[in-house]
Structure formats: structure tokens, C-alpha cells
Amino acid sequence: MAKRTTRAQTAVEERPLEETEQELQSSDETVSEPVYEDEGLDEEQIAEEPAPPDLIDQHPEAEWFVIHTYSGYENKVKANLDHRVQSMDVADKIFQVVVPTEDEIEIKNGQRRTVQKKVFPGYVLVQMVLTDESWYVVRNTPGVTSFVGSGNKPIPLSTTEVRQILKQMEVEAPKARVSYQRGQSVKVIDGPFAEFIGVVDDISLEKGKVWVLVSFFGRETRVELDFLQVEKL
Predict the structure, then answer these.
(1) Tens-place pLDDT, residues 41-86
(2) How many Å apart are CA 126 and CA 137, to the nearest integer?
(3) I need a surface site. Which of 79, 127, 150, 210 has the fewest CB within 10 A?
């Protein structure tokens, strides 16, 4: 559907890895942040603005494709591709570039903080009308290694798959990320059982709780603790 046979395009795809990495390092200089001007809207006018349409329904003629990127370059690829869409005048064919992420609560050094975690490391979603031109723009963006598909033919995601991914990004309550697991020895550092050594019996990410088996007066006792009340040995 989107084959490339010209010498110029073949040469682009066969560029050495060192050359591509140099492009990635210098791409920060070519991508500029958009500037928005205050149009003087009052609060009532802003409140009356209609809600933005669903990301999927905005462009029913388009499909969602997955591109593979160099690991750790997902955000840079998004910035590069957004810039190329504008500079190469293909905004009528490439509409959305999304790096799927979700919020997680990280417990580190006795502190709780919310961090963003990439749902699919090394992959970026693109909503586009697939043509030879749009394929070329995406495929030759610095940091993009390939489309996900069969051979040279990109295969679009189903609407159900896209909705599941986008819904996962919109979950309000972040999940907790802990560095211990069932059967692991931990030390209680807070509460009435502080300084006790125990074994993790169960974990609830939703409640932010961990149940630990500790030896109390010669008997094994199951105690409920917050994630911040224990640490790995």
C-alpha cells in the first residue's frame, strides 16, 4: 500500500545508525515550541467553548498505526514528527501523534511521588490517512525504525484497541509501583511494629497496602501496613 522504490528514499532508509543518532542529538535545535497569543476571552466565553471531540472521532477517515522507535526516544520522535507534519504541509493527512503514558505512584527513600510511565516503551501511535506521502513523512522521521505491520505494509489498530489504550491514559487514580513482592523479607520502619523483620504475605496496589507476617511473642502475626511503613532488606 505504501511501498518506496525510489533511490532517494531507499538511501534514506539505509542511512548508517551513527548518522541517524546525530540527527536525533541535533533535533532539539529544529523543534520549536508553539507560541499561543492571548485573545482576550473572558471566563464566560471560555466556559461556553464546546468540549473537544473524541480523539478517534475527530477524523473518521483516518486510522491509527503503531511506529517503532529507538528506546528512550519516544518523546523526541513525537516532537520531530509534529514538526515535520507542519513543515512538510501534511497536517491534512497526519492528525495525532501519541506517546501512551500512565501515572504511577513511586515509593522511594520513604517518599511517595507521582511519575509518568510509558505504557509501551519503544512505540508511538499515529493517527493518519495512509498514503505514499504520509508514509514517507512518518517513516523517515529521525528515531523511527519501522511501522508495525506485515513486511512493508503497516497494519492499523482496531477502534477497540485504540479506545482501550486511550482510556488507560485517562485513568484518574495513579497506580502504585512498589519494589517488593510476595515472599520477600522486609523491615517495618514505622508504627507499633517498627524494627520488626517480616515476610510480605500480600499486596494491594489499589489500597496502597501490604500485609506482612511478623513474629510477635513467638507467634506469626499478619499485620496490615502502608507502603511507606516498610522497606526492602
Answers:
(1) 443 443 333 334 455 666 778 999 999 998 889 999 999 999 999 9
(2) 12
(3) 150
Own/partner pairs, 204-208, CB within 8 angstroms, 24+ separation: 205/175, 205/176, 205/178, 208/105, 208/176
Tell the residue number behind the cell numbers 501523534, with chain if given: 97
**Positions of E strands within the chain:** 63-69, 94-98, 101-108, 111-118, 123-128, 144-147, 149-150, 153-154, 175-177, 185-188, 197-204, 209-216, 219-226, 230-232
* 112-149 burial: b if 16+ Cβ within 10 Å, else e: eeeeeebeeeebbbbbbebeeebbbbbbebbbbbebee
What's the pLDDT at 110? 63
Helices (H), ranges, 33-118: 43-48, 74-87
Q: For 119-196, where are the E strands, in sequence order?
A: 123-128, 144-147, 149-150, 153-154, 175-177, 185-188
Look at residue 25 in the predicted model and tell me its pLDDT.
Answer: 52
Nearest residue to 27 via CA among 75, 66, 59 = 75
**Residue 27, Cβ neighbours under 10 Å: how many?**
18
Domain 56-176 classification at class level: alpha beta
What's the first-to-final CA gap in the chain, in angstroms? 56
In this prediction, residue 27 carries a pLDDT of 47
Closest C-alpha to 165, from 228, 101, 95: 101
In contact, 143 and 84? CB cutoff 8 Å? no
Residues 179-232, CATH architecture: Roll (2.30)
